[in-house]
Amino acid sequence: MSEQPQAVYPPLPFMPNHVGIIMDGNGRWARQRGMGRLAGHRAGVENLRRVLRAAVELNVPIVTLYAFSTENWSRPQDEVRGLLRLLAEALEREVSELHKNGVQLRHIGDLAPLSDTLKQQIRTAVELTRNNNRLIANIAFNYGGRWEITEAVRAIVREGLPADEITAEVIGAHLCTAGLPDVDLIIRTSGEYRVSNFMLWQGAYAEYYISPLYWPDFDKDEFYKALKVFSERDRRYGGLKKA
Ligand code: IPE
Ligand code: IPE
Ligand code: MG
Q1: Which residues participate in catalysis according to the annotation?
Q2: Distance between CA atoms of 25 and 191, rounded to whole angstroms?
Q3: Would you say the CB of residue 192 lies under 6 angstroms from ligand 2?
């Protein structure tokens, strides 16, 4: 029996500090197999586990994973309920392992419409893992960039800040990602070229990588490929190309 050659992932000259992933294509992955959409989401959760492990192994410091948008409530009730249940199950099952692997779990988004049990489960996971420093994993669940910016504006107004003291830094400090660097690389799976309300402020200068793979098929090789493509990009921030 021939052995699978071990894949190698040589260190890259530039690594992103912060990678955002729009985990798209679960529904199409399932349809392709004649399965229901929820089976696709279940496969998506499984893959999330693998990708978190890959992020640790590839030395990515921060990932933000778009799991449920503020617009996803418009899906059929059964699917929404299934997604909420999958989040609860995943937390139940995976948190102790993630904790063991040094993952610091955070949540970004609006907890308000979630059940008290789910809210509590999320808070417990965040509290348990708060001192871990191998990887920061932000789970964006009921997250939307417009919601987040609106909330930041509300908070700033409530604090009574004078208009001329409102700077980009002040706004950044009122977002869910306060204290974290901007997202450097945004990966979207399933070949869709759109941002779908993800990290609108933090992604102002993000590099994009669109993978044709559906999310459940997005593996460590493809993740590494995205990081490699990123490391070859010329980021100019409105300036000129480096000599
Ligand atoms: C991404 O997969 C997961 C969520 C948005 C919750 P989709 O459910 O959007 O899958 P497609 O885009 O229909 O294939
Ligand atoms: C974006 O995917 C949201 C998540 C991956 C959680 P969608 O499938 O909801 O986005 P659209 O509808 O294609 O823009
Ligand atoms: Mg989709």
Answers
A1: 24, 72
A2: 9
A3: yes
